[in-house]
Amino acid sequence: MRVGLKKELLLEETSRSEYEEDPYNLLLLTLGGEVEVNGEFINVSHEIWYLDAECIEDHEDYARVIMRLGNKTKLKLNKITDYIDIQNSTAWVSFEYKNELIRWEMKVEDDWLDMDIFRRFNELTKTEQSMKLYISNLDQGCLVGYFNQEQVIELNELTKYKFEEY
């Protein structure tokens, strides 16, 4: 959990008995979500993210995804921008990384996130870090984590949500 959040918030929407029946899976979903603090929604954890994959509707949606991935991986990304026009099947996101402008054309399928963004992000970081983005697909949403291989193996043994490199 983020520093400063109280563990009691874990029981706001899920009871202790529900956690006891399905501890790791429910905990991942709760930690991956957001909580309202002083009228502002913040991430419960920086380590795991529950992402609704039907999240691309307008400008800044891909930029928000890239910002969150940058924060999760601690990459220094600048000049993050995007363009989204669902009706004309056009979407792209661009950002500066290591003084290089990177622009990715994104596939448009209604308001669904182009999941290839995770593979591309892993390609961007592969030479620098032993950690990677791992995804667990959950129908309309997914859990996104940034782990090393040992962590993924352990997590996959504990939960029904199987994380895979995208």
pLDDT < 50 stretches: none
Rounded to an integer, what's the Rg over CA atoms? 17 Å
Distance from first to last alpha carbon: 25 Å
> What does the main sheet amount to?
4 strands, antiparallel
* Count of individual helical segments: 5
Domain count, please report it. 1
Task: Describe this protein's structure.
The mean pLDDT is 92. The protein is globular. The chain is built from 5 helices and 9 strands; from the N terminus they run ααβββαβββαββαβ. It starts with 15 loop residues before the first helix and ends with a strand. The protein has one domain. By secondary structure, the protein is α+β, with helices and mostly antiparallel strands.
Name the descriptors.
three-stranded antiparallel beta sheet; alpha+beta; four-stranded antiparallel beta sheet; 9 strands; 166 residues
